[in-house]
Predict the structure.
Amino acid sequence: MARDVIPIRRAAASSNAFEYFSTKKDEFVGWARKFSLFPYPFVTACCAMEFMAVSASPYDTDRFGAALPRFSPRQADLLMVVGTVTHKQAPVLLKVWEQMCEPKWVMAFGVCASSGGFYQNYAALQGIDKIIPVDVYVPGCPPRPEMVIDGIMQLQDKIARSRHPVVTDTF
Amino acid sequence: MAAARDLETLRRELVPVAGAATLSHGCFVLLLTPSELVPTVRRLRDEFGFDVLLDVTAVDWLGDALRFEVVHHFYSTTHKARVRLKTRVGSDDPVVDSLGALYGSAAFMERECHDMYGIAFRGNFDLRPILLYEGFVGHPLRKDYPKQREQPLVPYRD
């Protein structure tokens, strides 16, 4: 039995109303998503201290809607990899990233997560982008809180500029 | 005062224990052969009161005939003194006796030393990797391990 397919995009559009609506949809969803980042802190090393500093009241990432750390990857949409990731930990990081629901973004917090930093030996992964895609890099050993806030704001810009398909790939 | 006198006694009695001994920065250093290790440690524990095994590690003297130097550190909580034992072993069969029967804490430290230097400890039957992971080939702290060789567990993205 053939099922009736409801076309999302009309085959012959007589006006550009649909395109206009679609564009505004991306803008609206992007606006909503960029102010409701739920970070999952994958904290492995000394950058954790800086993560605490940037979360606490003087710098206060709550202002950007990125305040509430979720310690379950199922509930998070921003994976903050804070600190050195070793080869032994890499499978764990990959599993956490795979468990996060779409849409998801990744921030490499600190120079070790970005590139391995000054660790170049048998133990350290040379940047988490070897195994998972990274949206924003915040270098520094450790990064200043201002750099982290700048990273969050750049990520928000990126989210606002992105397409946000909610039904299919084209809508 | 009593502590200083104890230390002096210790120095007099400890130094003839092994073939060669020195005093380095207030730490007794004894150079041993593998067969002398366990009897010396037993004397240190039972007669001299060295009740804490602090560390088991090794030094790789690449190129020497006896390539590895297994280093044990002990501490005495009564005398507040430290002693260091250096045991030289060759590279083709680097084996020393385990101290697991004398110090329970030896087991994990010997596993780490086995990870990093490939020293086998006779009598320690659980030398699985403790800091490294299953499948790691080689011993990373040996001088002939290539500095930048990585053994990733996760395939890299292209």
Remarks:
- Chain B has one domain: 2-122.
- Residues 2-122 of chain B form a domain with the Beta Polymerase; domain 2 fold (CATH 3.30.460.80).
